[in-house]
Structure formats: structure tokens, C-alpha cells
Amino acid sequence: MLVSCISSLHLLSFSVCLVLSDYDRFFHLIVSLFERFLPYQVAETRRANMRNALARRMKMDLIEGEEAKISQLQEDQFSELDQRLKQVEQLREDNRKREYMLNKQVERQQAQIARNVRISAAELQNND
Predict the structure, then answer these.
(1) Of the residues 8, 18, 83, 86, which has the fewest C-beta atoms closer than 10 A?
(2) pLDDT digits (tens, 9 = 90+) for 18-68
(3) How many domains does the chain have?
């Protein structure tokens, strides 16, 4: 990365330094390049870290959104199931009451038929 940032002027300075054997100048040039491009590298690293953090956060938001949708869907399904169970229980209770009333009507009708048979039997005995 550092090599790509060095301009042709710096390359020329390197070659001049090497030719003149001015190692001190060469060393200072390298240090100045590092000092110049180090903040750029730090800033680029921070930007990359921020991009990664943003990507992770967006992914978490998507996952949480999907989990919320799934949770809401399950809650809706449970509510619907609970409502159906209540309807079934109400139907069973209604049917039980209806059956009880029908049994009472049958008992009354049987009692009436038994009275009618006794009355008819008594009248037949009186007529004989």
C-alpha cells in the first residue's frame, strides 16, 4: 500500500539518495513518508472498521426484524388457535345444554305418554 502512495518524485529522490550514498537523507525521507501516510492508513483502517461495524449492525437489524416477524406470526397463530379452542369449547357447552334440554323434553313426553296410557287403561276398566 505504501509503495502505491509514493509518487515518481519520491522514487527519484530515493535514487538520488542512493547514488549520493546519503543514508541519513534517505532515512529521513522514509520516516517522513511513513509519517505522512501513516495517518492515511490509520484513517483507512478506521473507515474499514466502521464499515464492518455498520455491516454487522445492519445484519443484526435484519435478523432482529426477521425474528420479530416470526415471533409475531407465531403469536398470531397461537391467538387463532386459542380462539378456535374457545369456539370448540363453546360449541361443546351449547351442545351439552341442548342435549340436556332434549332429554328433559323426552322425559316429559314419556311421562305424559305414561299418564295418557294410565288414563286410557283406567277408562277401559271403567267401561268394562
Answers:
(1) 8
(2) 544 566 777 677 777 767 776 777 778 888 889 998 999 998 888 888 888
(3) 1
